[in-house]
Amino acid sequence: MILDTNAFSALADGEPAVTEIVSKVAAVCIPVIVLGEYRFGILQSRRRTEYERWLTDYLPVFQVLNIDDRTTVPYGDIRADLKRSGRPIPSNDVWIAALSRQHSFPLLSRDRHFDWVPGIKRVAW
Fold first, then answer.
1. Residue 61: what pLDDT?
2. How many Å from the N-terminal Cα to the C-terminal Cα in the chain?
3. Contact 22, 1 (CB under 8 A)
């Protein structure tokens, strides 16, 4: 399973529903984009020290998915499909969706716009 930034943040906050979902899957992956968004978010947080400590402790548990030349194929397809349908989504989310499609992993996210992306399965909580 791949975690979107809102799912990763919820996990860091100990959200019971997210913790339960994550505990039932074999592997949990974090797109490098999510890691960057999370690090940006904690720089602005009043709980910065706590979140940095959590990240240091738990990051080794996750597989970080990097973007490579193979990711650009689903990225281009997804972006073109969304443009044709008149439903663009934020560019970082296109990359996250492309990694989800590339690796055939479901995506844990509260962002409903991922439902517009053909070929991926969004899991909500």
1. 94
2. 14
3. yes
pLDDT of residue 67: 98
Which tokens in the block code for residue 61? 């548990």
Give all domains of the chain, ordered by start, each with its CATH number.
Answer: 2-123 (3.40.50.1010)
Tokens 């996250």 sit on residue? 96
Q: Give helix 91-103 / helix 72-85 axis angle, nearest 10°.
A: 120
Q: What's the chain's length in residues? A: 125
Query: In this structure, is the dihedral angle defined by the CA atoms of residues 62, 38, 35 and 110, taken in order, positive or negative?
Result: positive
Q: Mapping DSSP to helix (H, G, I), strand (E, B) and coil, where does residue 2 land?
A: strand
Please give the Cα distance from 115 to 42 (Å, whole number): 27
Residues 67 and 95: their CA atoms lie apart, in Å, by: 8
Spans in the chain with pLDDT lower than 70: none
Cα 124 from Cα 110, distance rounded (Å): 5
**What tokens appear for 78 in the block?**
């997804």
Query: Where on the phi/psi map is residue 35: left (φ > 0), alpha (ψ -120 to 50), or beta?
Result: alpha
The 3-class secondary structure across 16-37, one letter per residue, is: HHHHHHHHCCCCCEEEHHHHHH
